[in-house]
Target: Iron complex transport system permease protein
Amino acid sequence: MRDSRSPSVDTAEGPDTPPPPVRRPRGSTLRPVHLLLGTAALAVLLLVSVLTGAAELGWQRVLAEIGAQLTGGVSPLSEREAAILWQLRVPRVVLAVLVGGALAISGAAFQGVFRNPLADPYLLGAAAGAGLSVTVVVTAIPQVNLGTTGIAQVAAFLGALGGVGLTWLIGRSAGSDTATLVLAGVAVGAFLTAAQTFVQQLRVESLQRVYMWILGRLSTTGWNEVLTVLPALCLAVVVLCACGRLLDLLGTGDEEAAALGVRPGRVRALVLVAASLATASAVSVAGLIGFVGLVVPHLVRLALGGSYRVIVPVSLLFGGAFLVGADMLARTVMAPAELPIGVITAFTGAPFFALLLHTSRRR
Model:
């Protein structure tokens, strides 16, 4: 008869046995060099973009003007030239940083929640909701200005949040897994897009204006658009950066995350709300700019590893840099004409993303 005090290989683990350690993804530590590289890339593109524009101010004079503003010296620019620089060009560049950062950090968050590098900020119906809302406004109020902060921007913001909210309600009513939520997003997006098409047919003359908005644009009349995006983006950055470790734990699976004290449902809801808020703010002032939230986080993941403690903050910096560069191309490629920035991001982002997929597959 076996002694009950002797150890047994098939004895179950006791309640006090600690959970197995979680394998940390490659590049799970955010290092100063990561932020330094992103900040350097952003700073270089910011400077080049500020020095470039349709109005020829002269790069030496622009640098002298910036120095004069910093030191209190005499401005080399006329009053009109200074207004072009500080009320048109600089706000537009800053807006590109905020919109690009918002889309990139939202894309990183969506990819973490759904554990899919192909997820983007428009996955749950934000684009379709915003497009329908703007189309309704343009159809109902033909004289509305889509280029400045006003009713169209408010409609786009609420429409984007409404599309995501509708997807969430349908997805939660059908199940609690992420696959159901994605399918709900596809259904909601298709329905809202069909509704948008129907509304457009009621006033065909609005098609061109809506189409230009859908292609994306960065137009400013001062700092109003910047102030529109800034609060939501700041809130989203704080929440999403704080949730980086939780996103890493979600990547191990819901059961493993729950064993480590994480509530997957609550984490997903918090992350999606923050990311959707940033996306809605970006869409409200810039229209539907594609590929930023898809390409930038994927590139950061390939370069620095799979930890969202690194991907989220670094994507914020490189997303801003990416859109600043795209906007600079949009303003200069066919100058004095200007291309929609969504065309530039699609032209550069789609082939680049295809190359990334090819190289990652070969690895």
In short: The chain is about 70% helix and 0% strand. The domain at 65-99+118-288 is CATH 1.10.3470.10 (ABC transporter involved in vitamin B12 uptake, BtuC).
